[in-house]
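Render this sequence as a predicted structure.
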Amino acid sequence: MRTALNKVRGLRIPRPVWVVLLFLCTAAVGLAAGAWQNLCVDCPSIAQIYTYEPQQTSKIYARDSTLVRELGLERRTPVSLASLPPHVPQAFLAIEDRRFYSHGGLDWKGIARAGLEVIRTQSLSGAGGSTITQQLARNMFTDRIGFEKRVLRKMKEWQVALALEEAYSKDQILEAYMNQIGYAHGWYGLQTASRNYFGKNAIDMNPAEGALLAAIANLPEVYSPLNNPEAARGRRNLVLDLMVREEYLTEDEAQRWKAEPVPLERARSVQIQAPYFVEWVRGILDDRFGGKLYTAGLRIYTTLDLDMQAAARTAMETGWERIEGWPGFSHPTYAEFAAETDEVDIDDIPYLQGMFVAVEPQTGHVRAMIGGRDFDHSKFNRATLARRQAGSAFKPFVYTAALESGIPASEVVPDSPVVLDQVDGTIWKPANYEPEFLGPITMREGLRKSINMVAIRMGMRVGLESVAQMARRLGIRTEVERYPSSAIGAAEVIPIQLLEAYSAFSTLGTRVRPFPILKVESADGEVLWEPRPERTRVLDPQVARVAVSMLEDVAFQGTGHTGIHITAGLPLSVPAAGKTGTTNEGRNVWFMGFTPNLAAGVWFGMDEPVPIVGRATGGGFASPVWGEFMRRVYFGDLPQGESGTDDGAGARPLLAVPDPWPVPAGLISRRVDSKTGTLASRWCPADEAYDELYLPGTEPTEVCDRQARSDLPGRDP
């Protein structure tokens, strides 16, 4: 044996063999180096890493710059590390990467520990060992991989992590990491997560909240408190313990913060405000900006007034409750339906619906919008999309066409039966809401009392084509058929277009298209779009002012008076005008009205055009909502029947009470008899005379001489 060993030890290896071995070793090292260099040909390059920015949400702001909604494929809002309280990044370091500031991107102790775990479990899942830098690198790969490629991917992540460490400072890496973490529910980054979980900005988080977000980051779906509150609490408390170990917190501080509850539902402060308005805005911007809307971090400034939105919602809730509590209401109530279902996007809504829109007439800025009762149940926007019969809310277009043709508001028209033969051989015999006929009355009284026969006769007199063209000119873009029934609102209209038409009265003849967007900026502050109001002069100011005068009568002493001033308590000091609307069998009830600086429209009805309740009217159901909204706008929480504000919360008026509409130069005022439309005289009752406005050349010249009362003073024998 010893002899054999001696022979082996004495064996000399020829020089060529050493050369070959050296070559093979060098080649192996070269191949390994080359493989390492070529491993990441499809990885994010250094240049990409320098310029890499995560997708950012676009943000929709109200007119006071309050954030209303974020839009994005990933809801993400970056926040700077320097703005955060120290305990927030410390929580992440404690649980995710305690040696973050000392390693060069790869933590070899952690990698070794993870390797042993793989050997022990014979599985790659849950191996851990990733530094924060590695996790950031992993987020930059967007493609999915199978199990067989996970080792290769891990090596690629190492390369990107090393490149990140060369390209960025530690603070920049940590900041980027915290802005990219997924938190389940479609929320990404600290700021978005903080707003949704806690209802506050990330810079305001306390240690318990910071620890919870650090805890969720490991397995978001598992540790989200909205999904598993006990698991979230346990993981959060572990983070707090680790913060004690790293001397970020004292033991007493950790115990204090462990007592904090975890959120069980999405923070109320980030529930979508004005969801129908927001969705309207989103649709407009999607058409204009496409996918950029969801990835480029656009800043969208809108016309929405959150205080007016709240006032509108309060008034509408009161209106819905009033109708559902009305004797004879037989449909399912909203509360009953909501208690029995948790469905969303329901096709057939069985409960009472409604819509509300408020617009600044001079600019077209939409200040408030309610497109339905529950956005989760139905995303269909009844304010911008629904087509419903206008009923008597259409009548102002008939009378405005008459005024423009030279017929004065004091024109006397018979309130008597109308019977018309139809093309199909039937007879059309419309009725008034009240069965009695009033006989000859002025056009003004016909509008004030919403008399159907007067509107039909006047529509036929001026021509149904003229009526339809007037409606089109004022803003109605749906079809108005040239039938006598159109004069009393048989045509279907879209609510926001109907309000646009009424707004043209408020401005004394200038139509402005309602629009929700002030401007759109890029993430860098560059103005990308700043739409201008679409203004069109559609009426002579004199004609418009007479029409406004007639509509003021409706609000102050006509079909809208009780709802606006008695039920809702709007003080008479507010110059107000408008028109009620009710369709056959009470399927739709409306009030469209305006002041000199604000226009608003209300509609109630069922999604299926069936009667709401017996004797439903716009004056009874819609006008009180309009009146309550205006009362809140001009007087805050003014109690009904009072004329001043109190010092309670929310009492602040939103707008100053405007001055009445001016009377354009050239209009003529005459005192006339309300029964004959002729000039008032001592031969007619003085208490039946009123002041009327006339376009030049349309004023009466005949003096009233109808039979005087027996006690009328000064009557010649």
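Summary. The longest strand covers residues 353-359. Confidence is low (pLDDT under 50) at residues 1-11, 27-36, 639-650, 708-717.
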